[in-house]
């Protein structure tokens, strides 16, 4: 059974320890790449056709308007064939205490019935917020497993935490914690 790492991430200006910082790679993409390193899964970036602004304040305004009006952005490259995937690691930044609308658009474009979803999010203030509850509502036929919330500004230094979270799930094809340590040292 194959593993997919679907994630939405945004470079440009981001909140980082209370300050605005310009990123060349978004925090959630960094986390997704770490998950990929330890699962061997396929990376699947969730990309809106019209991305949010790279300006932090404009992005937050755009994302708040989309959320309040329930506007689902058009995504490039979706829907994709998920029939060969049993596990989906779903990564996203916490926007307004929930899933960003590009992630909602991805979920609504795919039937995830029977899939295992392992959510992970990056945040600066409120962890998962109510995104897990919203994820369960959007994917009633999927099995939502324990997630991981990682502070965005610290994601690069949380590789061991992410690796332990990946290995802690009782999936029969998961690699052991010892294998994770060996992979990290290669």
What can you see in these coordinates?
The chain has helices at residues 27-39, 56-69, 101-109, 131-138, 159-168, 177-185, and strands at 2-7, 12-16, 19-23, 42-45, 47-48, 75-76, 85-93, 116-123, 143-144, 148-151. The protein is an alpha/beta fold and 186 residues long. The strands form three sheets. Strands 1, 4, 7, 8, 9 and 10 form a six-stranded parallel beta sheet that branches. The protein starts with a strand and ends with a helix.
Q: SSE layout and pairings?
A:
Blueprint: E1 2-7, E2 12-16, E3 19-23, H1 27-39, E4 42-45, E5 47-48, H2 56-69, E6 75-76, E7 85-93, H3 101-109, E8 116-123, H4 131-138, E9 143-144, E10 148-151, H5 159-168, H6 177-185
Parallel strand pairs: 1-4, 1-7, 7-8, 8-9, 8-10
Antiparallel strand pairs: 2-3, 5-6
Helix pairs in contact: 1-5
Describe what is shown at a glance.
With 186 residues, the chain is α/β, with parallel strands linked by helices. The chain contains six helices and ten strands. Helix 1 crosses helix 5.
Number of domains: 1
Number of helical regions: 6
Reading off the top of the CATH hierarchy, the class is best stated as Alpha Beta
Rg on CA atoms, Å = 16 Å
Helix content: 25-40%
- Termini, distance in Å? 25 Å
Shape: globular
CATH topology: Rossmann fold
Order of helices and strands: EEEHEEHEEHEHEEHH
Uncertain regions spanning at least 5 consecutive residues:
174-186
Oligomerization category of the chains in this entry? single chain
Tell me the fraction of residues in β-strands, as a range.
25-35%
The CATH architecture category equals 3-Layer(aba) Sandwich
Largest sheet report: 6 strands, parallel
């Amino acid at each position: 059974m194959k593993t997919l790492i679907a994630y939405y991430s945004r470079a440009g200006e981001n909140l980082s320890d209370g300050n605005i910082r310009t990123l060349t790679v978004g925090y959630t993409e960094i986390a997704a790449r770490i998950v990929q390193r330890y699962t061997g899964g396929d990376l699947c970036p969730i990309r809106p056709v019209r991305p949010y602004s790279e300006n932090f304040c404009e992005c937050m305004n755009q994302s708040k308007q989309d959320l309040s009006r329930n506007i689902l952005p058009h995504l490039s490259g979706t829907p994709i064939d998920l029939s060969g995937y049993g596990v989906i690691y779903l990564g996203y930044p916490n926007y307004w205490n929930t899933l960003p609308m590009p992630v909602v658009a991805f979920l609504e474009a795919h039937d995830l019935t029977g899939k295992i979803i392992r959510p992970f999010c990056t945040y600066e203030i409120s962890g998962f917020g109510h995104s897990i509850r919203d994820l369960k509502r959007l994917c009633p036929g999927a099995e939502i497993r324990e997630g991981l919330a990682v502070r965005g500004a610290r994601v690069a230094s949380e590789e061991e935490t992410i690796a332990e979270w990946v290995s802690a799930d009782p999936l029969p094809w998961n690699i052991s914690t010892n294998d994770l340590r060996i992979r990290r040292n290669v």
